[in-house]
């Protein structure tokens, strides 16, 4: 009695079958290509077999065999000097023959053998078989068949039989081979697509890594190389999450440690007897607090847990402009009274508050235009100031980059306003573009998605 259970035996056979499938991506693609080549080769072999099978009908074959047998006897009984002329006389439009003495090179261009046709001819008259009948066909000739017979003295009788192979049958064979090759190509493409599915999943996960602090564990499956890459991406996500958590703790500590001394310094300044010294210290404290708030806002942007919800973008823009008007700034609004969209309200307000503040501070005024087009909104914030040189427009979107002149540090700029705007816009799957305004100042064009499915805020 055997000690191997059926379950164990089945598991071993299954493992053996699995091992036939390569573990590597290169091996799997190579196997698919090899299988495709083999299938096309087999289809080609079947095509040639089919082309050889479909020849003339039995009556035509019998006529050729009888004529060749008769011509062979006539040529063989004639004198060698008479055979060339006799071969010409025996030829007609359907069957042409020629005689070649011993030692003369064969002028025939045999391309591939028609074994079945030879068997049919020999079956009609066995004399042709004893004479060493050879039958070949030339694909370029269409339907003609070439052949040769050996005489007893070693000379050869060669012949050309016209209209033997049916052209329509060859065409059908070519069509069959083309259809088979197309089917093999489609099957190979489907297999390669199936092999690339894990790679597409990797690309989707890699694109989602780091968005809103998300962590998307990736299933480790597929070829060996893909599994290794999936493990590396999962490990990378763990490290990124750890770094984000560490930064959160650092920001909380820095916020407390910096704001507390500033609050004490502001409180002490209030007890100074010298008004000028008090104002100077409070001004320095305000500047330091603005710097701290700006840096913390920039660093904490990716950690903002604010959820998305429906908001009225028109109302937000008009509220920001009214706030500037109350401070004596020149503002203008061109757009609908209501514009509903799915977004993070505070982050969206932060975007346009920075842009409108910049326009009023450095351009003297702020004119906002709002347009909605299907699933996206476009907001343009224009000013009448000196603008930004074209070669500097990309640089000012970087953190801590400050322009000289009206946008220098002397005016209170820290170089974080536009950087914060860019980061928040990109988190919203939007775009930001700086250009020249029609009135000569700076135009900031913001494009944001409005639908919930399009927004990743």
TrEMBL record:
This protein's UniProt keywords: ATP-binding, Cell membrane, Kinase, Membrane, Nucleotide-binding, Phosphoprotein, Transferase, Transmembrane, Transmembrane helix
Membrane association type: Multi-pass membrane protein
PROSITE patterns in UniProt: HAMP, HIS_KIN
Top-level taxon of the source organism: Bacteria
Catalyzed chemical reaction(s): ATP + protein L-histidine = ADP + protein N-phospho-L-histidine
Cellular location(s): Cell membrane
Predominant place of localization: membrane
Protein name (Swiss-Prot/TrEMBL): histidine kinase
């Amino acid at each position: 009695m055997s000690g191997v259970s059926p379950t164990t035996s089945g598991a071993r056979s299954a493992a053996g079958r699995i091992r036939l499938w390569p573990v590597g991506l290169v091996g799997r693609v190579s196997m698919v290509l090899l299988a495709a080549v083999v299938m096309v080769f087999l289809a080609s072999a079947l095509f040639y077999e089919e082309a050889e099978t479909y020849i003339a009908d039995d009556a035509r074959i019998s006529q050729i065999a009888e004529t060749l047998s008769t011509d062979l006897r006539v040529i063989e009984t004639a004198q060698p000097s008479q055979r060339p002329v006799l071969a010409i006389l025996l030829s007609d439009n359907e069957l042409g023959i020629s005689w070649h003495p011993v030692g003369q090179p064969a002028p025939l261009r045999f391309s591939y053998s028609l074994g079945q046709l030879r068997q049919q001819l020999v079956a009609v008259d066995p004399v042709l078989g004893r004479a060493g009948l050879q039958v070949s066909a030339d694909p370029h000739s269409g339907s003609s068949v070439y052949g040769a017979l050996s005489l007893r003295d070693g000379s050869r009788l060669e012949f050309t039989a016209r209209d033997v192979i049916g052209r329509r049958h060859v065409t059908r064979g070519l069509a069959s081979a083309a259809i088979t090759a197309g089917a093999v190509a489609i099957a190979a493409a489907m297999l390669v697509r199936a092999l690339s599915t894990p790679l597409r999943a990797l690309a989707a996960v890699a694109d989602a890594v780091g968005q809103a602090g998300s962590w998307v564990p990736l299933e480790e499956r597929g070829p060996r190389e893909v599994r290794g890459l999936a493990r590396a991406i999962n490990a990378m996500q763990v490290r990124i999450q750890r770094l984000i958590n560490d930064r959160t703790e650092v920001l909380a500590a820095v916020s407390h440690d910096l704001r507390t001394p500033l609050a004490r310094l502001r409180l002490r300044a209030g007890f100074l007897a010298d008004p000028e010294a008090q104002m100077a210290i409070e001004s320095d404290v305000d500047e330091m607090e603005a710097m701290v708030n700006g840096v913390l806002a920039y660093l904490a942007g990716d950690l903002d847990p604010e959820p998305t919800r429906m908001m009225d973008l028109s109302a937000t823009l008009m509220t920001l402009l009214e706030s500037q008007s109350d401070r004596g700034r020149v503002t203008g609004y061109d757009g609908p009274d209501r514009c509903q969209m799915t977004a993070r309200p505070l982050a969206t307000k932060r975007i346009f508050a920075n842009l409108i503040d910049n326009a009023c501070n450095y351009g003297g005024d702020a004119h906002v235009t709002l347009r909605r087009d299907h699933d996206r909104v476009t907001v343009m914030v224009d000013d009448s100031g000196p603008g930004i040189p074209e070669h500097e427009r990309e640089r000012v979107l970087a953190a801590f980059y400050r322009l000289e002149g009206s946008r220098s540090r002397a005016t209170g700029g820290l170089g974080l306003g536009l950087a914060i705007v860019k980061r928040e816009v990109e988190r919203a799957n939007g775009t930001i573009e700086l250009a020249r305004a029609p009135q000569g100042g700076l135009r900031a064009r913001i494009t944001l998605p409005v639908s919930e499915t399009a927004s990743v805020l």
